[in-house]
Write a structure and sequence with these properties.
5 strands, about 0% helix
Length: about 70
Amino acid sequence: TVGAVTAVTRIATIPRSLSADAFVAYSWDSYRIALNVSNMTDAFSYAQATSNRGVPAAGRTFILSLGAAF
């Protein structure tokens, strides 16, 4: 049909999820070491949802940091 407008509505349903994270640190003298682990179970989940799609979250992530105070 000429001049007709069709509206399409898409609804995305994002399932619930639960993530387990861990953090451990050790300090001695003026030094520090820390390990951060996100999404320990490496479960699939979504970081955010927009109008018609979900953005997948990162998988299991390790962050090791070292520090020194002067």
